[in-house]
């Protein structure tokens, strides 16, 4: 008895026969803002898929389904420990994502205090170009890293230097250490 679905078996055969053509056909079913030039490029040890192409995986995962009449289909199905089941449709998920996006960035949200997040939201709202958002985010990240390095340097500066070759008695060492801790 064969447990592999005949459709999946056909896909496996097609992929083995001509991988580039197989993946090009699969990717053509998704929306692309800029089509790719080559489906696959391999320059060992590096490889790249859909070279030159531009798409948005988040858009493909949610918005595309709603735009093509599948908003009422299940996007997420969750089962909790009590056995209850919750189904979220693509339209509901899109509404939730938009509601979060419309409220953000709120400085009370710890995750949005990350360097670069406010700039990305400004880009998503059309207030900054992607290149400007990237540049500002990189500048903020560098400034943050410099502050962290300064803090680490101060933490790494020893308060007490003990010379293990010195002939201090245990009593003198204890006095020295308790004096600096106080």
Would you mind describing this structure in some detail?
By secondary structure, the protein is of the alpha+beta class. It folds into three domains: 53 residues, no CATH class; 48 residues, no CATH class; 51 residues, Helix Hairpins, CATH 1.10.287.890. Helices cover 52% and strands 13% of the residues. The chain is built from seven helices and four strands. Strand 1 and strand 2 form a beta hairpin. Helix 3 packs across helix 4 and helix 5 packs antiparallel against helix 6. 3% of the residues are buried. The model has no long low-confidence stretch (mean pLDDT 83).
Short description:
By secondary structure, the chain is of the alpha+beta class.
Secondary-structure blueprint:
Elements: H1 6-17, H2 19-28, E1 38-43, E2 46-51, H3 57-67, E3 74-79, E4 85-89, H4 90-103, H5 117-124, H6 130-156, H7 170-181
Helix pairs in contact: 1-2, 3-4, 5-6
Summed up, the helix count is 7
Would you report the number of β strands?
4
Query: Per DSSP, what share of the residues sits in E-state strands of 2 or more residues?
Result: 5-15%
Along the chain, the helix and strand elements come as HHEEHEEHHHH
The overall average pLDDT, rounded, is: 83
Q: What structural category characterises the helix and strand content?
A: alpha+beta
Give a short account of the largest sheet.
2 strands, antiparallel
Amino-to-carboxy terminus distance: 78 Å
Q: Spatial order of the strands in the main sheet? A: 1-2
**What's the structural domain tally?**
3
| Low-pLDDT segments | none
What is the radius of gyration computed over CA atoms, rounded to a whole number of angstroms?
Answer: 28 Å
Q: Globular, elongated, flat, extended or rod-shaped: what is the shape? A: elongated
Helix percent band: 40-55%
